[in-house]
Amino acid sequence: MHACRSGTTASPSATLPVVTSFPERLVLLAAVALLCAVTAIAVVERSTRASTPLGLATAVAPGGWNTAFAASRGPAGDAQRTSCGQVLTPRSLGVTHPVLPCGARIVLRYGSTQVLTQVIDDKLTDPSHQLEVTEKLAQILGLHGTQQIEWRFATDAGGATG
User: Fold this and answer.
1) 47 and 94 in a common domain
2) 20 to 30 A Cα–Cα from 21, which one of 11, 107, 131, 133?
3) Which residues of 55-82 are buried (b: 16+ CB within 10 A; e: fewer)?
4) pLDDT digits (tens, 9 = 90+) for 74-126
5) Which of 104, 99, 95 lies closest to 133 in space, CA to CA?
6) Which structural domain, as residue segments, surrounds residue 34?
7) Are residues 85 and 39 in the same domain?
8) Bridge partners, residue 155, by sequence
C-alpha cells in the first residue's frame, strides 16, 4: 500500500478505510455475521408463509371432524389384495384413502352411525371419490352412492391419536 502525497492521485483502494487492529476486525466480522443471520431468518420466515397453503394453515385438529365424498369400493373380488397387503373378503371393513398411511385408525360418521375402522388401501377405484369404504362398511353406515361423510382420526381414552 502506498501513502498519499499532496499533489498525487490516490489509487481507488487507498480511499477505503482500512481496519488494522484485531479488535476492530472482530467487531466488524461480528456485525456482518449478525446482519447475515437476521437476513436469513427474514427470508426463511417469508418463504415459509408464502409456501404454506391456506388449507394447511387452517387444518382441523386431529380430534376434529373432516368431510369427504365417499362411496363403496364395490364388492370384493376373489382373493383381491389391497396395496396395504390385506386380502379383501365380503366381510372386510376398511377404507381406501390416497394419502393416509396403511393401518391409520379413523372413525367414520354418516348420519347417526359412527364406525371405528382403518385404512386398508391407498388406490381409489374412482378418482371422483376422496375416500372409499368396503361394501360391508357401506352397508353398516347406510351409504348408497357417493355421499358426503365425516371422518376423524381415532383417539384412545386419553385423547391421543393413534
Assistant:
1) no
2) 11
3) eeeeeeeeeeeeebebbbbeebeeeeeb
4) 888 777 889 999 999 999 999 999 999 999 999 999 999 999 999 999 999 89
5) 95
6) 12-51
7) no
8) 161
Q: Is the dihedral of CA 32, 33, 34, 38 positive or negative?
A: positive
Which stretch of DSSP H or E encloses residue 133? Answer: strand 131-133
Same domain, 23 and 80: no
Task: For residues 115 and 144, state if they share a domain.
Answer: yes
Same domain, 84 and 108: yes
* 36-83 residue pLDDT tens: 777 777 776 665 454 434 433 344 445 689 999 999 998 887 778 899
Task: Answer yes or no: are the C-beta atoms of 90 and 136 closer than 8 Å.
Answer: yes
CA distances, 62 to each of 59, 161, 162 (Å): 9, 7, 10
Domains in the chain: how many in total? 2
Instruction: Kindly state whether residues 94 and 145 are assigned to the same domain.
Output: yes
For 96-101, the CB contacts below 8 A with 24+ separation are 96/120, 96/121, 96/122, 96/123, 96/124, 96/125, 96/131, 96/132, 96/133, 97/121, 97/122, 97/130, 97/131, 98/122, 98/123, 98/124
- The one-letter amino acid code at 79 reads A
Greatest mean pLDDT range, 17-26, 30-39, 106-115: 106-115
- Residue 95 lies inside a defined structural domain of this protein: yes
